[in-house]
């Protein structure tokens, strides 16, 4: 077992000197420690965010209005300014490599910035021919392919509004999202390949299009076959005519895209982010916390239905080459992504924490990663053992950046920075401009104890609104109902005295046993350390202050059995490493652990199912990676 907080990596003087944040601090005249700069960034937000605009030379007019007006949840930024995300993302030398695309079959395409600009201009002109203009919505049902990136930038260049879903989403889940925003154009693939298999989605696309009010056109991107439905517009038609590339500059808070809550229960929240907030936030985060810039090859394993796709595309803002990948992370084997990184000379490799844990359990030792200097992990807490595996098997010189935030802000609140050491299980810092605190039940700020993750001052990438929420009531209820004027994110966090942070999972799925509250990540760390356990889910069925049963569900590794010996060892480990109160009342084997399409465990929906809520009301199965496993949690199973 790896001790939480064990030192794994320290920046050398050369690393500190070369870090982009060091040059930024020197420009500001800040010579203190990172924590001092962070305090300044949250205590003087107007000065800090103005410095980000100036330091990166954001293209646009800033206007003469105040940098920030009002307080959360009604704060407004950079009044009188005008800019465009696409104009900032597409600046730079036209000859540099901007995008590389790979898929699991081995296909590869490469685009210079000049070629991307030309494609964006063509697609922009095609969208105009279809009647798309400022404020209109363009929806996309597409995998992580170059056409998705190009269509997004073309949409943004017009001041139109983008929204995307991965084609592994089912039709009801997609229409739950897109019908809320009433797109004028739908861009869709006829199918996709994953895990060596082809999945035809043409009928699903027709079903989606039929349920979108106001839809004027569906544009098909052939992926499985060369033809398209008779009379349909295809991608080549959309990009058929060359045109000059122009950019509609819009106000700072003008909608850029609509992202969605996971949608595992209820109608997904349509979260709207603005051009300006995303430009500033992604420039800051990618450049200073991921330390990305020109010469870097930036990869994150994601689909277009997860906010990490939007974050990955932001690599263009920082001048990095963006590596897109369409396919399974584990085809033909678990090492697939590491091999991709070696072949493409990736310098920053991002993935979900479960992939790092799976690599560890598979005993992988990735090779050929000579250019790799950073690894990003997000989606769920990475246990200390995952940290240690990276440094023992991937390389002692990489900076492992565990990153935690959310779709709500399309960034991380807490994450890495190249000035600070890496310790097992600990996220190094609160990110610049993110006023993160831990609150106890009374709303008092605490240090060294687990509490609610809150944001006490506004950030420009907070939603400008929810779609179809003109009063703002739904927005306020989502984040500000518990602590007036303070954003409650819904995660458990412990902030250490030195500014390091530990995330313990969702606060709405806390284990409360005999008055001892514990995040589920601590539980999973103990259980999933066993070689026999491939995955696990723990549920506390207590409600209304009454203690219920503590149930542990496990998926076993190949060849393993839920023997009396394994059960005994699990109970002993949990009793010893957590507490006697956290020994499960029951342990059950299940064929799989329910997860969202972005890999998050579905603790709350499973709890509802166990308490008698019908599956179709407890979870949106079309937003799940493996909905077939839910039936194994029904009380009558």
TrEMBL record:
Database matches in PANTHER family: ACETOACETYL-COA SYNTHETASE
CDD domains xrefs: AACS
Keywords: ATP-binding, Ligase, Nucleotide-binding
NCBIfam families per the UniProt record, alphabetical: ac_ac_CoA_syn, PRK03584.1
Family the UniProt entry places it in: Belongs to the ATP-dependent AMP-binding enzyme family.
Entry-linked Pfam families: AMP-binding (PF00501)
Protein name as annotated: Acetoacetyl-CoA synthetase
Gene3D superfamilies in UniProt: 3.30.300.30, N-terminal domain of ligase-like
Domain AMP-dependent synthetase/ligase: residue ranges: 88-458
Organism: Microbispora amethystogenes
SUPFAM superfamilies noted in UniProt: Acetyl-CoA synthetase-like (SSF56801)
């Amino acid at each position: 077992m790896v001790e939480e907080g064990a030192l794994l990596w320290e920046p050398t003087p050369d690393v500190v000197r070369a870090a982009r944040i060091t040059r930024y601090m020197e420009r500001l005249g800040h010579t203190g420690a990172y924590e001092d700069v962070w305090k300044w960034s949250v205590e003087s937000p107007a000065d800090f965010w103005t410095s980000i605009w100036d330091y990166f030379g954001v293209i646009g007019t800033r206007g003469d209005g105040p940098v920030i007006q009002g307080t959360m949840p009604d704060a407004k930024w950079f009044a009188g300014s005008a800019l465009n995300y696409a104009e900032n993302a597409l600046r730079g030398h036209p000859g540099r490599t901007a995008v590389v695309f790979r898929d699991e079959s081995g296909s590869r395409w490469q685009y210079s910035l000049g070629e991307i600009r030309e494609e964006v201009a063509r697609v922009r002109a095609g969208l105009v021919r279809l009647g798309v203009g400022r404020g209109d919505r363009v929806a996309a049902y597409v995998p992580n392919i170059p056409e998705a990136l190009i269509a997004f930038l073309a949409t943004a260049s017009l001041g139109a509004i983008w929204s995307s879903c991965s084609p592994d989403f089912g039709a009801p889940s997609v229409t739950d999202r897109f019908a809320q925003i009433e797109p004028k154009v739908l861009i869709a693939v006829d199918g996709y390949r994953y895990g060596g298999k082809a999945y035809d989605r043409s009928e699903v696309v027709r079903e989606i299009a039929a349920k979108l009010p106001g839809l004027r056109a569906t544009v098909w991107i052939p992926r499985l076959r060369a033809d398209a439905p008779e009379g349909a517009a295809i991608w080549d038609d959309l990009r058929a005519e060359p045109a000059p590339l122009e950019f509609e500059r819009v106000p700072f808070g003008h909608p850029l895209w609509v992202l969605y809550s996971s949608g595992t229960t209820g109608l997904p929240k349509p979260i709207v982010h603005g051009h300006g907030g995303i430009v500033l936030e992604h420039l800051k985060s990618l450049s200073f916390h991921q330390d990305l810039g020109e010469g870097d090859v930036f990869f994150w394993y994601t689909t277009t239905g997860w906010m990490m796709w939007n974050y990955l595309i932001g690599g263009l803002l920082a001048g990095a080459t963006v590596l897109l990948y369409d396919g399974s992370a584990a085809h033909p084997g678990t090492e697939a992504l590491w091999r991709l990184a070696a072949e493409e000379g990736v310098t920053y490799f991002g993935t979900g924490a479960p992939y790092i844990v799976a690599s560890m359990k598979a005993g992988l030792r990735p090779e050929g990663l000579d250019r790799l200097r950073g690894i990003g992990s997000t989606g769920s807490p990475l246990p200390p053992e995952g940290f240690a595996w990276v440094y023992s098997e991937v390389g002692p010189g990489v900076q492992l950046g565990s990153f935690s935030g959310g779709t709500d802000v399309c960034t991380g609140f807490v994450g890495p920075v190249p000035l600070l050491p890496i310790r097992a299980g600990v996220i190094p810092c609160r990110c610049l401009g993110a006023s993160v605190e831990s609150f106890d039940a009374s709303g008092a700020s605490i240090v060294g104890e687990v509490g609610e993750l809150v944001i006490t001052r506004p950030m420009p990438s907070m939603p400008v609104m929810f779609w179809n929420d003109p009063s703002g009531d739904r927005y306020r209820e989502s984040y500000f109902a518990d602590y007036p004027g303070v954003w409650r994110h819904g995660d458990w966090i412990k902030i250490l005295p030195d500014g390091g942070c530990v995330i313990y999972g969702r606060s709405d799925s806390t284990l409360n046993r005999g008055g001892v509250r514990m995040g589920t990540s601590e539980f999973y760390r103990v259980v999933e350390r066993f070689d026999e356990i491939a995955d696990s889910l723990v549920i506390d069925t207590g409600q209304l202050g009454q203690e219920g049963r503590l149930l542990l569900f496990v998926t076993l590794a190949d060849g393993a059995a839920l023997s009396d010996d394994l059960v005994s060892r699990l109970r002993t480990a949990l009793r010893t490493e957590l507490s006697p109160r956290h020994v499960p009342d029951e342990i059950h084997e299940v064929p799989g652990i329910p997860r969202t399409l972005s890999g998050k465990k579905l603790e709350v929906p499973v709890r509802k199912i166990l308490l008698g809520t019908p599956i179709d009301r407890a979870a949106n199965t079309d937003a799940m990676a493996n909905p077939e496993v839910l039936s194994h949690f029904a009380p009558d199973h």
